[in-house]
# Entry
Amino acid sequence: MDNDLQNLIEENNKLLKENLALTEKNAKKIRKIQLYLRRTMVWKFIYWIIIIGITIGAYYLSRPYINTAVDKYNTIQEQIEKTSNVISDPGSFFEGVNPLNRLLNR
# Structure
């Protein structure tokens, strides 16, 4: 009986040592995974800051060109409206012009 108990204790100690070794190995792997995740998170944060910064910078640099394009578009739209008004009412083109006064003032 004493011999069986001794064998059981030795086997139990052997299993505890294996379990301790596996636990330490797993702890090292978990630390590596945590460090990898932290680094990945930091790099993704930096990546998105750069993307957002470039986008905002591009907006501010292209803003004058956008304003110029919008102004030209509005000018063209006004010209089209004036042209369509002249086409629909050709007499409005000659408002304020009196041909008799022009002929007599010569």
Q: What stands out?
A: The CA atoms of residues 86 and 93 lie 6 Å apart.
